[in-house]
Write a structure and sequence with these properties.
Elements lengths: L10 H4 L1 H32 L6 H8 L3 H7 L3
Helix pairs in contact: 2-3
Length: 74
């Protein structure tokens, strides 16, 4: 069987803008997860793990409850 002709454009060249945008998005997700984790650790230290709610963690991080669950599903 014959192979399909290769395009003159390489995937590295055509995917470069998408890769850069993907890298930025991944960096932003990681930054938000770290901010949420830092907020949680601060609250755990002051209130205790059992007494800390998701709403408090989200408020401490300055985000909505939904944002918390977008990053930490369970």
């Amino acid at each position: 069987m014959s192979q399909p002709a290769k395009s003159s454009r390489t995937s590295a060249t055509s995917d470069a803008p998408e890769s850069a945008a993907g890298s930025r998005a991944a960096a932003q997700r990681l930054k938000m997860r770290r901010e949420l984790a830092a907020a949680a650790m601060e609250l755990f230290a002051t209130k205790g793990y059992e007494a800390t709610t998701v709403d408090e963690i989200a408020a401490q991080a300055g985000v909505a409850r939904r944002t918390f669950f977008r990053h930490f599903r369970s």
